[in-house]
Amino acid sequence: MDCLFCKIIAGEIPSAKVFENEKVFAFRDINPQAPVHVLIVPRAHIACADEITASNSEAVAAVFEAVPAVAAAEGLKNGYRIVNNCGADACQSVKHIHFHLLGGKQLSEKMD
Ligand code: DGP
After folding, report:
1. How many CA atoms within 13 Å lie on the side-chain side of 72?
2. Distance from the CA of 51 to the center of ligand 1, in angstroms?
3. pLDDT tens, 64-101?
4. Does ligand 1 have an atom closer than 6 angstroms to the CB of 93?
5. pTM of the entire structure?
6. Hey, CA dihedral for 65, 70, 76, 82, is it positive or negative?
7. Distance CA 103, CA 55 (A)
8. What gap in Å lies between CA 48 and CA 86, rounded to an integer?
9. 3-state class of 42 per DSSP?
């Protein structure tokens, strides 16, 4: 499968890793939009939120179970935002589900 994030998870494309476990890989976004901008992704390939099912949702749960550890490691004591883009209207550019963890500054109230 020709998937950029599968290649990053496999180490075929370098990334700045910040966390990994059996089910989850997290690395710095190449185009950070906040002082902390980490992408947290399941190792399992799920294209987008539209493809979450009862049989693969444990991979998504594992992402959220990793969030507190990633946020703590990044020093996000005052909060953070988690964003998932799904599909064209949301400008999803990489078709491997990923969750943007943004923080390290006061974020905008606007989310669109
Ligand atoms: P989205 O628009 O939600 O699909 O976000 C995709 C993000 O992936 C975007 O913020 C930039 C990031 N990105 C794209 N290519 C690479 C890459 O090769 N390495 C890293 N670290 N991030 C990438």
Report:
1. 5
2. 19
3. 999 999 999 999 999 999 999 999 999 999 999 999 99
4. yes
5. 0.98
6. negative
7. 31
8. 6
9. strand
